Each structure stands twice: as C-alpha cells, then as structure tokens.
Amino acid sequence: MSGLLEGKRLLVTGVLTDDSLAFSAARHAQEQGAQVVLSGAGRGLRLTQRVAKHLPDPPDVLELDVTQPEHIATVRAALERRWGALDGIVHAIAFAPAEALGGGFMDAGWEVVSTAVEISAFSLKLLAAGLRPLMVAAGGGSIVGLDFDATVAWPGYDWMGVAKAALESTARYLARDLGPDNIRVNLVAAGPVRTVAAKSIPGFSLFEDVWDGRAPLGWDINDPDPVGRACVALLSDWFPATTGEMLHVDGGYHAMGA
Ligand code: NAP
Q1: Is residue 126 within 6 Å of ligand 1 at its C-beta?
Q2: Average pLDDT value for residue range 9-13
Q3: Angle at Cα 12 formed by Cα 126 and Cα 158, nearest 5°?
Q4: Least packed by Cβ within 10 Å: which of 9, 43, 62, 154?
Q5: Mutate to test the pocket of ligand 1, among 45, 195, 211, 225 (most ligand atoms within 8 A of CB)
Q6: pLDDT at 1
Q7: Average pLDDT of the segment spanning 7-12
Q8: What spacing in Å lies between the alpha carbon of 2 and ligand 1's midpoint?
Q9: How confident is the model at residue 5 (pLDDT cuts 50, 70, 90)?
Q10: Which fold has domain 9-250?
Q11: Which residue's alpha carbon is at the smallest distance from atom 23 of ligand 1?
Q12: Contact 67 CB / ligand 1 (< 6 Å)
C-alpha cells in the first residue's frame, strides 16, 4: 500500500527540537512517502540541522528567517533547482517578544506587537507568495499552518493571541487568492504541547492543568503526534475541497462549554 503523501515534495518550517509540532509532521510525512526539506532560522538553524538527523530520512536544511526577505528568494531558488515544483508547505513559525506575553497586554507597545504579527502571521503570506510559482508548477498543493485558536482570549497569550487571529484571517485571504491556482490553505488549531515556543509563554501551565480534564478525548501535553498526523492529512489529496479552514486538533476542548 502506498503512503498518503507518496511523491509529494514538501517544505517543513519550524523544526527546532524533537518535540516541535513540525518535527512530528515531518516524520509522519516521510513515513507516508513524502520528500521533505526543512528550514531553520537564526540561532536555531544549528539545532534544526542536528534534529534533522533524527528523522527517518535525514533531510537537507535551508536557512529561512522570515524577517529576511532575501531568504525566501534563496529558498525558492534552492527548491527550484532540487524539484522544479513544490506540493506543500508546513508553516510552524511563531515568535513574540517577552513584553508581548504574560499579562502585560495593556502596556505592550507597537514595536513588540508588530514583531509578533510579522513573524507569526505575515510570514504565512510571505511564504505563500514566495513559493507560489513552485506550487503552480506542481499543479497546485496544500499549505498548512499551525494555530492556537484565537477566537477567544487566553491567560498569558496576549499579543500572540492577536497575532494568531491575524494568522487565521491571513489564511482565509490566502485561500481566496490561491484557490484559483488549486492551492489550499488551512490551519491546524492545536491543543497545548510542551515545546520550546510553548514553554516561553508565561502561564502556559494554566492550559496544561485544565486541557486534559475538559477535552472529551483527553489531551497529552507531551504528545505532538495528533498534530503531526493532522498536518499530513491536510497535505494529502484527501482534503481536495477544503480550504480557508481551521481544523481543531485539541481533544475536543474547543467544543465544550465547561
Ligand atoms: P517550537 O518547536 O519552538 O517551534 C517554533 C519555531 O518557530 C522554531 O523553529 C522557531 O525557530 C521558529 N521561528 C521563530 N522565529 C522565526 C523566524 N523569524 N523565522 C523563521 N522561523 C522562526 O514550537 P512549536 O510549539 O512546535 O511551534 C510551532 C507552531 O505551532 C507555532 O506557530 C506555534 O504558535 C504553533 N502552536 C503551538 C502550540 C503549542 O502548544 N506548542 C499550540 C498551538 C499552536 P527559532 O527558535 O530558531 O527562531
């Protein structure tokens, strides 16, 4: 039996450690037959290169800091030389300065807020626009971003929540503009998983304490696997008519009133 992603050529961003949600997506993607290239940013690039070796088929790692527009052009050129086309992208990139998190919502200034929005939301547009020609060359494809449901306010999440709301809206507009190219754009709204990014959010433990009890399916904050699997499903040909969607992978937490 062939894999769900047999022959697909994918760029997976945001693999920083073995715990990264994107690491799980990359591992499952390879197991389902995809060819994968990773990208890493800044000081984390070395970590990405090291962690890449833990994947079943250690992939190449390209440098891609979304605040450096020239990096997107370099990545596009590298993928063009390698494959000439691209079937999918995993966007697993988020960052907010400490002042934008942890209860200082009323005090955070535009400088820190704009950084959060640029890296966590606008980067989805940058990636999609920069790599669109390669996805058109593939006859279309799938872009999957990682979200933390921003339709409500959370303790401590503050301006990252606002950045995620921008990500959700960006995904819908990209779905509109890229649909004619047969490019789907969807988000996985994940429950909390203990990654480097999550641990940097003051008050994250508040989520940890309640999530498992309230989610009807239960929730393991140490297990990125359900999120990785969902990314693979959305990258596959089994969601051909789904775009602009936010798929909750949270044990059902979002659907419960209390
Ligand atoms: P992670 O392992 O820490 O990954 C976050 C990634 O974002 C890192 O690889 C980081 O690279 C990258 N990044 C930050 N600034 C960047 C930049 N300027 N350019 C390119 N990449 C940059 O944490 P994660 O939890 O798996 O996060 C992946 C995604 O899942 C994020 O969008 C996050 O918001 C989302 N998410 C996480 C949870 C959760 O509970 N963990 C829940 C819902 C959604 P560097 O560190 O090298 O900068």
Answers
A1: no
A2: 98
A3: 60
A4: 43
A5: 195
A6: 64
A7: 98
A8: 31
A9: very high
A10: Rossmann fold (3.40.50)
A11: 197
A12: yes
User: 187 — alpha (psi -120 to 50), left (phi > 0) or beta?
Assistant: beta
Q: pTM for this structure?
A: 0.98
Q: Is 199 a catalytic residue?
A: no
Question: Residue 22 and residue 18: Cα distance in Å, rounded?
Answer: 9
Alpha helix ranges (H) inside the chain: 21-31, 45-52, 69-82, 110-117, 123-137, 158-178, 196-199, 204-214, 225-235
- Separation of alpha carbons 30 and 53, rounded Å: 13
**Annotated catalytic residue within 8, 53, 125, 157:** 157
CA–CA separation, 60 vs 37, rounded Å?
Answer: 5
For the sheet containing 183-190, what is the strand order?
Answer: 61-63, 35-40, 9-12, 88-91, 141-147, 183-190, 246-249
**DSSP, res 192:** P
The answer to whether 8 is a known catalytic residue is: no
147 lines ligand 1 (CB under 6 A): yes
Is there an atom of ligand 1 within 6 Å of 26 CB?
no
Q: Which residue is listed with tokens 């921003």? A: 150
Per-residue pLDDT tens for 156-189?
Answer: 999 999 999 999 999 999 999 999 999 999 999 9
